[in-house]
Amino acid sequence: MQVNILEAKNRLSSLIVAAEQDQEVIIARNGQPVAKIVKYSARVAAISFSVIAVISCQRLFRKRG
34, 27 in Cβ contact below 8 A? Predict the structure, then answer.
């Protein structure tokens, strides 16, 4: 489902419930998708953090080297 920002603000609780039920929730500004509400997954969050950490380390060493 796609909703505009104002509608998302007013219906946030129900949109979170929809995301928990694996429904795709897209938030749009002027009809253009700008954000997505997705069900939280600890595994995905851990993988994302690991990828960010690796990229940050690569950038740090690239600047020094």
Answer: yes
